[in-house]
Design a protein that fits this description.
The protein has 200 residues and is an all-alpha fold. It is built from six helices and two strands. Helix content is 68%, strand content 2%.
Length: 200
Amino acid sequence: MISHACLAVLGGFSLNLLLSFALGAAGISGKSNPLGQAKPQLPLLQLGLLFVSVLFLWGFFSFLIPPFWRGFSMYFLFFPLSALVCMGLEFCFQRFLPKAVPPAGKVFRSFTAYDGLVPAALMLSLALAGSFSEALVLSLSFAVGNLIAIAILNEIRRRSNLERVPRWLKGNPLLFISMGLLALISASAAGILFRILEVL
């Protein structure tokens, strides 16, 4: 139970850190309405596909990849296979459930494997998860951590349009500063929670 809690903390905060550092402000900017407020974009479907992709690829690399491909050469397959799985899943949804994929809900690009989040999550999952339940906890934590980070940054952008913020700080500059602070908070919270879990 404690190991699963540790993996959940690591998964939630580590991909939150990656999102904070790596994701460009344009990806989470939202569309402005006539009042100047940002319309929040929460890519729930894409985060669900991230969860499924990481879990599927973990099973593929753990059980189906030939032994001679394991090791250093396996890392060369992470990005192309992640991009293929993301594009394939999105294509299936668009083909069979076209109304389930609204254009406003697309924040990540599937051909970049969701801006590199899927291969990063896969790398961590393969290194840490020894069983299906641990991989499930990690995959779910990655998706939830991203959802929380995107929701926080959308709220920061919305409030910056409503409140008095210096003109030179509005928009992307404020988002990049917020990403850095969010990454620091994530790292600190992860350290504190890990120490608590080590004591238990």
